[in-house]
Design brief:
8 helices; alpha+beta; single chain; 206 residues; 4 strands; Orphan protein; 2 domains; coiled coil
C-alpha cells in the first residue's frame, strides 16, 4: 500500500533593520522625514506576498489525504472480502466431513482395550431396560475398542422411537465420558458410534 509523507515547514519572516546612517542620508536627499516617506504599515505590506505564497499548497495536501483515505478504505474492503472467503471455505470443508464414516473406519482398524471396553459394553446392554425401551427396540450388538464404541439397534415391529432412544442414551451417567456421538438410522435400524475423543482430536489423529 503506497503511503504519503506529509511535511510541515515553519517559517518566520524578519524585517531587516537598515543602519541609522542610511536613514539620515535618505531624509536629507528627499527633504522629508522618514515617517512621512514610509509609514510603519508599509513593512507589513512587504510580508504579505511571502505569507500568501504558502496558501496554494494547502488544497494539494488535502487532495493527497483524501486519496490516501480512499486507497486505505479500498484495501480494507479487499482484506475483509478475503477473510470472509477463507472463513466460508473453512466452514464448508469442516461440514463436509463424514463423522460417522470416519468413526466406522477407526472402529474397524482399532485394537481393543479389554478393561474399558467390557465395562462400557455392560452399560450399553442394560441401557434399553433403564430407558424402558426394551419392548419396542432391541440391542443387536454393542462392541467397544480402544476409544470408540459401536452400538446397533433394531426395531422389529411398529414405529421406531429413535429420537427417544437417542435422547435417553445421552442422559445415561456413563455417557459423560464420550466427546463425540454420531448416529445413522433408517426405518428398521439405528447405528451409533461413541468416541472418547472430540471431532478435532479425531481429525488430527487420523
Amino acid at each position: 500500500m503506497a503511503g504519503g509523507l506529509l511535511t510541515c515547514a515553519y517559517y518566520e519572516l524578519y524585517g531587516v533593520k537598515q543602519p541609522e546612517s542610511f536613514h539620515h542620508a535618505a531624509a536629507s536627499i528627499e527633504g522629508v522625514t522618514m515617517d512621512e516617506a514610509h509609514p510603519p504599515e508599509s513593512s507589513g505590506d512587504n510580508e504579505k506576498p511571502n505569507e500568501t505564497s504558502l496558501v496554494p499548497t494547502e488544497p494539494a495536501e488535502a487532495d493527497d489525504l483524501r486519496l490516501i483515505n480512499q486507497q486505505l478504505q479500498q484495501e480494507n474492503k479487499r482484506i475483509k472480502a478475503q477473510l470472509n472467503a477463507l472463513a466460508t471455505k473453512s466452514v464448508t470443508k469442516k461440514s463436509s466431513r463424514n463423522v460417522p464414516k470416519q468413526l466406522q473406519s477407526i472402529f474397524e482398524h482399532q485394537r481393543r482395550d479389554d478393561n474399558w471396553a467390557s465395562e462400557v459394553e455392560l452399560f450399553a446392554e442394560d441401557f434399553l431396560y433403564e430407558a424402558q425401551l426394551h419392548d419396542t427396540i432391541n440391542l443387536l450388538s454393542a462392541e467397544c475398542k480402544l476409544h470408540v464404541c459401536q452400538l446397533n439397534f433394531i426395531a422389529p415391529e411398529g414405529e421406531p422411537q429413535w429420537q427417544q432412544l437417542h435422547t435417553a442414551l445421552l442422559r445415561m451417567p456413563w455417557m459423560k465420558q464420550f466427546k463425540t456421538v454420531a448416529a445413522v438410522q433408517n426405518t428398521q435400524a439405528m447405528q451409533i458410534h461413541l468416541s472418547l475423543k472430540s471431532s478435532d482430536e479425531l481429525s488430527r489423529e487420523y
